[in-house]
């Protein structure tokens, strides 16, 4: 039986998002039907509206979602009806080379539901990152569900589906920032702020936030930055060095992803420091660095693919930190909106907009 629900759909590239009727099938083998409680509005949704993604239009937007399991298909054992779950797009297949070596966070396989959600005329929809969370109900693969304590608010649980974990993981997992280290974060959007907050949890001694927007720098201080650099007035590299004793930072996270910010990150690190590229660059972007400088500074240049995030490990860990009062997930929350307000929220995001996450409540 198909479930008729309201959902946010983009029919063609660049078209506005609209709330439409969508048909969601009952779960097949290995699939889970989830009644969505909340879903954050992420820049990735805007990207899928503007330039498309890994699947054809029309697309069903939304991917930072949490909800309650309504039904499960044959063979599903990880979750059961009435379980409260956070949804994610990162899954580990368990059989590729990375998984066999115990590096499940490096798996590039993505499990998704086999049965399509459709428009009433039968046109199949492409759910963003295999989730499609801007819908009253969605169909996902079992591996996309992480069961969590129902004491956690849905608006908080859904935040762990993308941006927060990408930033936290860039600093903690990929960058390896630890107690007593110094870190600089270039770009204080949602990912950058999560990197700042993650560094504070990890015990970093100095946390330098860099941005050209003073409002974002004010937010970065709330999230744990010990110093800020306004790159509209001060050279970013000089500013970072002045706040790290003239040495540069042990870890520098580039949360912008341009050739300019990446070069800044490379020259703002201390000897044997780590540079982490935490934002997806434009496909045509290139950067030139003298190999002598790369060799002479030592350390490493790393790319963080979604914060080296492993949902089964990291969602419960971050929620534990939140419940202990050590990681304030609520600080990332912006306004609470309805499905009908998603297009407006995406429009604000397109033109700079707020850094904090608008969250759709069903």
Automatic annotation (TrEMBL):
Family named by the database record: Belongs to the zinc-containing alcohol dehydrogenase family.
Q: What are the UniProt keywords, alphabetically?
A: Metal-binding, Oxidoreductase, Zinc
The record's listing under InterPro entries reads: ADH-like_C, ADH-like_N, ADH_Zn_CS, GroES-like_sf, NAD(P)-bd_dom_sf
**What is this protein's record name?**
Zinc-binding dehydrogenase
> In what residue span(s) does the Alcohol dehydrogenase-like C-terminal domain sit?
190-322
Q: Which domain of life is it from?
A: Bacteria
The coiled-coil segments of this chain are none
User: Which PANTHER family would you find in this protein's record?
Assistant: NAD-DEPENDENT ALCOHOL DEHYDROGENASE (PTHR43350), S-NITROSOMYCOTHIOL REDUCTASE MSCR (PTHR43350:SF21)
Q: Where is the Alcohol dehydrogenase-like N-terminal domain?
A: 28-149
Co-factor requirement = Zn(2+)
Matching entries from Gene3D superfamilies are given as: Medium-chain alcohol dehydrogenases, catalytic domain, NAD(P)-binding Rossmann-like Domain
Signal peptide start-end: none
- Provide the species name: Streptomyces cavernicola
One of its Pfam families is: ADH_zinc_N
């Amino acid at each position: 039986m198909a479930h008729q629900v309201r959902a946010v759909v983009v029919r063609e590239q660049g078209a506005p998002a609209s709330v439409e009727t969508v048909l969601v099938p009952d779960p097949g083998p290995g699939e889970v039907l989830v009644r969505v409680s909340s879903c954050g509005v992420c820049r990735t949704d805007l990207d899928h509206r503007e330039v498309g993604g890994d699947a054809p239009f029309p697309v069903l937007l939304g991917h930072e979602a949490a909800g309650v399991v309504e039904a499960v298909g044959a063979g599903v054992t990880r979750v059961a009806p009435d379980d409260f779950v956070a949804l994610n797009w990162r899954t580990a297949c368990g059989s590729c080379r990375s998984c066999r070596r115990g590096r499940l966070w490096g798996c590039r396989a993505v499990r998704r539901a086999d049965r399509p959600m459709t428009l009433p005329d039968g046109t199949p929809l492409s759910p963003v990152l295999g989730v499609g969370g801007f819908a009253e109900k969605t169909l996902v693969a079992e591996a996309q569900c992480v069961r969590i304590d129902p004491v956690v608010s849905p608006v908080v649980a859904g935040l762990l589906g993308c941006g927060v974990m990408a930033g936290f993981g860039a600093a903690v997992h990929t960058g390896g920032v630890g107690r007593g280290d110094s870190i600089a974060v270039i770009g204080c959007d949602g990912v950058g702020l999560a990197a700042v907050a993650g560094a504070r949890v990890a015990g970093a001694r100095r946390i330098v936030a860099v941005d050209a927007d003073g409002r974002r720098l004010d937010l970065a201080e709330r999230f744990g930055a010990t110093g800020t650099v306004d790159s509209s007035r001060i050279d970013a590299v000089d500013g970072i060095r002045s706040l790290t004793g003239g040495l540069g930072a042990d870890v520098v996270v580039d949360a912008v992803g341009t050739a300019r910010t990446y070069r800044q990150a490379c020259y703002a690190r201390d000897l044997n420091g780590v540079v982490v590229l935490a934002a997806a660059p434009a496909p045509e972007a290139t950067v030139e660095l003298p190999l002598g400088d790369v060799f002479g500074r030592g350390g490493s240049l790393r790319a963080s693919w979604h914060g080296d995030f492993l949902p089964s490990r990291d969602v419960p860990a971050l929620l534990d930190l939140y419940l202990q009062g050590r990681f304030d997930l609520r600080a990332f929350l912006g306004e609470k909106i309805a499905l009908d307000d998603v297009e407006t929220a995406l429009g604000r995001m397109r033109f700079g907009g707020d850094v904090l996450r608008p969250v759709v409540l069903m």
